[in-house]
Amino acid sequence: MTAPAERVTAADDGRLADYTGLTDVALRSRREPEQGLYMAESEKVIRRALDAGHRPRSLLLSDRWLDPMADLVRRIGGYGAPVYVGTPDVLAGITGFAVHRGAIAAMHRPAPVPVADVVAGARRVVVLEDVVDHTNVGAVFRSAAGIGADAVLVSPRCADPLYRRSVRVSMGTVFQVPWARLDPWPGGLHLLRDLGFTVAALALTPAAVPLDALEAHPPERLALVLGTEGDGLSDLALAEADLAVRIPMAGGVDSLNVAAAAAVALWALRVRPAG
Fold first, then answer.
1. Cβ-Cβ contacts under 8 Å for 125 (sequence gap 6 or more)
2. 240-259 burial string, b = 16+ CB within 10 Å, else e?
3. Domains 6-108 and 115-268 are alike in CATH topology
4. Please, which of 40, 62, 187, 252 could form a disulfide with 49 given CB 3.0 to 4.6 Å?
5. Crossing angle (nearest 10°) for helices 70-78 and 43-51
6. Alpha-carbon distance values, 272 to 2, 118, 220 (Å)
7. Are 149 and 266 in contact, with CB atoms under 8 Å apart?
8. Beta strand spans in the chain (E)
9. Domain boundaries of the chain, sorted by first residue
10. Distance in angstroms (rounded) separating the CA atoms of residues 81 and 84
């Protein structure tokens, strides 16, 4: 039998330390990996985290959602994790914002997986260099899941895919698509080449081939490398790539947002069924 929900009435309740300072990106980006946790916001995202085998530390719930989410409360309680419930105002005082759909969970961060294991058997991999906007990272994961990429690799300075906003924008697909940090960078791209991947950099260089040309003759195993917002890929990363690729544009526009570019390139280069 699971324990009942515990009511909270004050923002400074010591039981809720995991949930404080959630709007401080710099603080949370250090604190969460160090403490081995991440935050899953909204019922759908929390359920996807649990379905992926991730273990909850606790659940914080608005009182109006206690009955509608009774089965989720029981599921969290089944792990022996506490469930805290309070008014929307109390929750906002704790977290610093209006909690989406009234539910947020502190989750145990899964152990890192070696890059070679993440890409084993993969045919399409997305690699992100220093993408610092968590919204873009989450959007790339959602495209990777929806279009069919097998894995995502991120550089050491790339935003955390398990940061709350990344998780929420991805709709929980960060739990579905295998990912790892590729370190050292960009030297780690050699590992992909050694594993049989063609490394293609999306970049506006004079030698870049149109995406259509690569789509006509796609390699068996392909790693698409995309760079940070604004500056794009570094010269060092470009030097490690086998070729550069550009998306043909119209209307005087030279490029797309990194998340949009990833979606377009993944669709064009997706693995198609035989025959």
1. 119, 149, 150, 151, 152, 153, 192, 197, 221, 222, 223, 224
2. bbebbbbbeeeeeeeeeebb
3. no
4. 40
5. 40
6. 47, 21, 11
7. yes
8. 6-7, 37-41, 56-62, 83-86, 103-108, 124-128, 151-154, 179-181, 198-202, 209-210, 222-226, 243-246
9. 6-108, 115-268
10. 10
Instruction: Tell me if 175 sits within 8 A of 38, measured CB to CB.
Output: no
Is domain 115-268 in CATH 3.40.50.1820, yes or no?
Answer: no
Distance CA 243, CA 110 (A): 34
User: Three-class SS of residue 49?
Assistant: helix
Classify domain 6-108 by CATH number.
Answer: 3.30.1330.30
* pLDDT at residue 230, rounded to an integer: 85
What's the mean pLDDT when you consider all of the chain?
A: 95
**What are the tokens at 270?**
């997706």
C-alpha 114/C-alpha 266 separation (Å) is 23
State how far the Cα of 194 lies from the Cα of 112, in Å rounded to an integer.
21
| CA 185 to each of CA 18, 25, 40, 162, 243: distance values in angstroms, whole numbers, following the listed order | 31, 23, 29, 20, 18
Cβ atoms 136, 174 nearer than 8 A: no
Residues in the chain: 275
For residue 117, pLDDT over 70 is answered with yes
**Is 96:27 a contact under the CB 8 Å cutoff?**
no
Q: Is 53 left (phi over 0), alpha (psi -120 to 50) or beta?
A: left
Mean pLDDT value of segment 235-249: 96
What's the order of all strands across the beta sheet hosting 56-62?
A: 6-7, 83-86, 56-62, 103-108, 37-41
**107 φ, ψ to 5°?**
-120, 150
